[in-house]
Amino acid sequence: MVDGRAVGATASVGMVFSDVAEFDAPELLTQADKALYEAKERGRNRVEVAGAEPATSHGDAPAPARASLAQSAA
Predict the structure, then answer these.
(1) Using the 8-state DSSP alphabet, how is residue 47 labeled?
(2) pLDDT per position as a tens digit, 18-36
(3) CA distance 27 to 44
């Protein structure tokens, strides 16, 4: 609530995963950043996961993925 009015917010998230013990943090951040901007470009309020292929969209993900994103923002 801001000045007695309900305020809505959305979140765009860029993610990257690594199963390598000695990962390159700057490279992972670069990939996550690219995925974030892909999420914004595809319509915002979504999660994009960077990988070997172009970022995978989760804007139409099943309810559990949306729920966990909503819980993270709360």
Answers:
(1) E
(2) 888 888 999 999 999 999 9
(3) 23
Q: Which residues share a beta bridge with 56?
A: 49
Q: Are 69 and 39 in contact (CB under 8 A)?
A: no
Task: Report the alpha-carbon angle 66-2-6, nearest 5.
Answer: 45
The predicted model scores a pTM of 0.60
Residue 11 DSSP label? -
Residue 13 φ then ψ, to 5°: -130, 135
d(CA 73, CA 11): 8
Whole-angstrom Cα distance, residue 3 to residue 15?
A: 34
CA distance 19 to 7: 39
| Residue 57, strand partner residues | 48
